[in-house]
Amino acid sequence: MTEMVYGAVPVRDGEPILPKWWRTVDRWALSCVLMLFAVGMLLGLAASPPLAAKNGFDPFHYVQRQAFFGGVALIAMLLTSMMSPTVVRRLAVLGFIISFVALALLPFFGTDFGKGATRWYSLGFASLQPSEFLKPGFMVAAAWAMAASLEINGPPGRAWSFALCISIVLMLALQPDFGQACLVLFGWGVMYFVGGAPMLLLVGMAGLVVVAGTVAYSNSEHFARRIDGFLSPDVDPTTQLGYATNAIREGGLFGVGVGEGQVKWSLPDAHTDFIIAVAAEEYGLILVVCIIALYTVVVVRSLLRLVRERDPFIRLAGTGLACTFGVQAMINMGVAVRLLPAKGMTLPFVSYGGSSVIASGIAVGMLLAFTRSRPQGEISDILGRGRR
């Protein structure tokens, strides 16, 4: 009778975990993520051979590595999505602590690989970027703290999460990695807004961001150079933005043809930060629109399922993960079409990169775990009873 009234998912005693997972998971979002990974492999076949030839590797060296990292990411995503929210929270907090310590130690043990920003640990056979794994862990840890502050006599979780957020942003800015810093701050701001933050406080935070950006522009040559390049009315055709802009223009609606693109021979980051330029040149606007649609479906469906969730922790954590996932994709594509300053940010599941794709798999696995249907009344039931 309760299930008829509240529309809850029935509990089946002794049901195996795989059928239960398949019945409760968001299959549309899962399918879109799998398609994004397939698109990434397709574009990797086009974008990475020039770099492999330049570095003396086999033509499909980077494609094989991406397939390996992608396989690990998909396994991590599926296993994480089968966990309960409590288990996800515990593992995420543990992962956040480890990633936070790793991020703090980067100035002493990290490397920049000649790119001017100390963001990685060199492991010999691969590199590790702690900030990629820090993001999903921080979103869950901050959501846990915010949800705890909503309880009667609860701890000051919002203040704690804000202190952590500022600490992470400062460490990222010192690398410098302003893109990841902005993404972490955005994710925290979204969760704080959903948790009932006063609008005046959010406006004040936006003002502080503007002030911080002004200070960074005045004191960081790296930051100022990227802002100046973005604001300049003319684009240097020999820069990465110039090559990407020209490739998108040449691709048109249907593209120049598979394997016929030229931007991959000019762009050093064609397989990572500017892979959407390769997609636009060889496959045209049609593939780009399909990629945007896939990201949109994942984010929108996740948010729609979270709206009906009654657990504040799950609502906050899921919202932070979904919005961060979508905004990272938007930033990557926005940089390629010169709507945003250059950020050095990957396109989730599509760009090459072990840390990026594995961390994205873990983050989406958490999101799928939080958006699974559970035997509970939805938040609308509580609101409905309050009006009676």
SSE layout and pairing:
Blueprint: H1 2-6, H2 17-24, H3 27-47, H4 49-54, H5 61-81, H6 85-104, H7 106-109, E1 121-122, E2 127-128, H8 130-149, H9 157-173, H10 178-194, H11 199-219, H12 221-231, H13 240-251, H14 275-307, H15 312-336, H16 354-370, H17 379-387
Antiparallel strand pairs: 1-2
Helix pairs in contact: 3-5, 3-14, 5-16, 6-8, 8-9, 8-10, 8-15, 8-16, 9-10, 10-15, 11-12, 13-14, 14-15, 15-16
Per the principal axes of the C-alpha atoms, what is the gross shape? globular
Mean pLDDT over the residues: 86
Radius of gyration based on Cα positions: 22 Å
Based on DSSP secondary structure assignment, what is the total number of beta strands?
Answer: 2
Number of structural domains: 1
Explain what you see.
This protein is mainly α. The protein has one domain (25-369). 69% of the residues lie in helices and 1% in strands. The chain contains 17 helices and 2 strands. It has a two-stranded antiparallel sheet. Strand 1 and strand 2 form a beta hairpin. Helix 3 (27-47) runs antiparallel to helix 14, helix 6 (85-104) packs across helix 8 and helix 10 runs antiparallel to helix 15 (312-336). The chain starts with a helix and ends with a helix. The model is unreliable at 1-8 (pLDDT under 50).
